[in-house]
Amino acid sequence: MRSCVQKTSGLRGFAALSSFALGLAIFGGTANATALVADGVTYTLTAPSLSGSTEEFTLVISGINGAADTEKGRYGFDALAFNLPSHFLSATAVTPPSFTTSSGGLNSGGCDGSGNFFCFAGFEGSSTSGPALAANSSLSFVFDVALSSGDFTTWTPDLKIDWLGTKNNYDLVSKTITPGTGPTPPNPPPVAVPEPSTLALLGGFLMVLFGFRRFKRA
Question: Do 64 and 163 form a contact (C-beta atoms < 8 A)?
Answer without folding.
Answer: no
